[in-house]
């Protein structure tokens, strides 16, 4: 049995505890090394191994002879059709058959749809019967008139011989004149019935919906069994059209040009158009007219552009970018000088226009420029750089002559 003194001795604190295991100290050292490596990698990615400024570049190109390809203004717009129609019937009726589909080409007069002709056929049958009745009445009156005229002629001879009374002759003459009036009325009734039949024929023809001009069907709006009407009936169950056709030969381009730049555009000016769907296809075009009205809200003026090349790939409402080009120089005229430099590469240094040209050792040289006219987003440069050289785009204010640079990733290249 242990005594109380032995138990108290067991509760005594041992102040010679072993030191902290070295394992935890090594873990902290490893963490510190990893953080240091991450900082080094981040610094390398941010500043580069050589500390050069990251830049984007673009080449300097020569201005083509004659200036025909020099753009004086760029704009965006849409392909529109000057001749398009949503074809409807002239009467309200139930669709019996639809003979068109989207993408189908139709010629002028082709049948697009037919309506139920029951009512129109019934009206035509009634008008035809009324015409027959009027003609029959006319024939009867003609026969009666012929008899009356013969009786009046005989009585005229007899009254001269005093074989009949004068009153009998006068009565025959009155009957003849009455029949003549009835025949005239009957003949006019025949004309009215004939006109009514012609109107009924138009009603039957109106049950056939025809294409007003040649074009391509872009929308099919009705189906057999639906009610169509040339006027909106105010409900969701009445169609107002059979389909939409577009004359593809009437396609042109409409663009909105800012008021500040409309002075650069002239009727007949050559244009190069590029569809957003086919960016590598350059379409020759020409300015048709400048609409003499401005949009107050957008401060733009609408310009109509004719497309010189007709192609099935060009469809309405396509987005398009256009470049208004300088007119070709006349024969013997002085050819434009200089090169095309992106406007983003030209900056101001000490009041002068300069550009930074990339050298073979990834250093840049500051060149003072003599600039000319604006060529869209580019500028004409008469001296300072040559075609084939590479210039820095959007050079930072800290970039100096002889500075070391490095290229931005390929996805950021301007060209």
UniProtKB/TrEMBL annotation:
Q: Which residues form the CusB-like beta-barrel domain?
A: 253-324
Q: Which Pfam families is this protein grouped with? A: Beta-barrel_RND_2 (PF25954), BSH_RND (PF25917), RND-MFP_C (PF25967)
Indicate whether tRNA-binding appears among the record's keywords: no
- Keywords from the UniProt entry: Coiled coil, Membrane, Transmembrane, Transmembrane helix, Transport
The answer to keyword Cell cycle applying to this record is no
Chain ranges of the Multidrug resistance protein MdtA-like C-terminal permuted SH3 domain? 341-394
Ranges in a coiled coil: 131-189
- What are the Multidrug resistance protein MdtA-like barrel-sandwich hybrid domain coordinates in residue numbering? 83-229
Q: Which GO terms describe its cellular component?
A: efflux pump complex
Report the subcellular localization: Cell envelope
- Annotated TM spans: 26-47
Q: Which domain of life is it from?
A: Bacteria
Q: Name one GO molecular function term.
A: efflux transmembrane transporter activity
Task: Give the family from UniProt.
Answer: Belongs to the membrane fusion protein (MFP) (TC 8.A.1) family.
What is the protein name for this chain?
Answer: Efflux transporter periplasmic adaptor subunit
Q: Which organism is it from?
A: Luteimonas chenhongjianii
Organism placement in taxonomy: Bacteria, Pseudomonadati, Pseudomonadota, Gammaproteobacteria, Lysobacterales
């Amino acid at each position: 049995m242990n005594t109380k003194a032995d138990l108290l001795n067991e509760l005594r604190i041992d102040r010679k505890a072993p030191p902290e295991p070295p394992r935890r100290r090594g873990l902290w050292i490893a963490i510190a090394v990893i953080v240091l490596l991450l900082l080094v990698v981040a610094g390398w990615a941010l500043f580069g191994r050589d500390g050069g400024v990251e830049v984007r570049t673009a080449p300097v190109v020569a201005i083509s002879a004659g200036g025909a390809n020099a753009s004086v203004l760029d704009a965006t717009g849409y392909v529109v059709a000057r001749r398009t129609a949503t074809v409807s019937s002239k009467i309200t009726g139930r669709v019996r058959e639809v003979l068109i589909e989207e993408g189908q080409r139709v010629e002028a007069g082709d049948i697009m749809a037919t309506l139920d002709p029951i009512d129109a056929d019934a009206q035509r049958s009634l008008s035809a019967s009324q015409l027959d009745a009027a003609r029959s009445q006319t024939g009867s009156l003609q026969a009666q008139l012929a008899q009356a005229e013969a009786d009046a002629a005989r009585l005229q001879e007899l009254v001269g011989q005093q074989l009949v009374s004068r009153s009998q002759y006068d009565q025959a003459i009155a009957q003849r004149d009455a029949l003549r009036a009835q025949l005239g009325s009957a003949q006019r009734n025949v004309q009215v019935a004939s006109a009514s039949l012609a109107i009924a024929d138009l009603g039957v023809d109106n049950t056939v919906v025809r294409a007003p001009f040649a074009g391509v069907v872009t929308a099919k709006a009705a189906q057999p069994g639906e009610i169509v009407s040339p006027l909106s009936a105010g409900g969701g169950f009445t169609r107002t059209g059979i389909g939409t056709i577009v004359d593809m030969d009437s396609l042109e381009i409409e663009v909105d040009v800012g008021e500040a730049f409309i002075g650069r555009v002239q009727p007949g000016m050559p244009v190069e158009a590029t569809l957003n769907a086919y960016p590598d296809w350059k379409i020759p075009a020409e300015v048709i007219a400048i609409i003499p009205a401005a949009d107050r809200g957008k401060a733009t003026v609408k310009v109509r552009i004719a497309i010189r090349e007709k192609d099935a790939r060009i469809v309405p409402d396509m987005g398009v970018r256009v470049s208004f080009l300088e007119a070709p120089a006349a024969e013997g005229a002085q050819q434009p000088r200089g090169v095309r430099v992106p406007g983003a590469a030209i900056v101001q240094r000490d009041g002068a226009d300069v550009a930074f040209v990339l050298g073979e050792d990834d250093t840049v040289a500051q060149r003072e420029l003599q600039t000319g006219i604006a060529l869209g987003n580019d500028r004409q440069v008469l001296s300072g750089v040559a075609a084939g050289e590479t210039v820095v785009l959007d050079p930072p204010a800290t970039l100096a002559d002889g500075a070391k640079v490095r290229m931005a990733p390929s996805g950021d290249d301007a060209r």
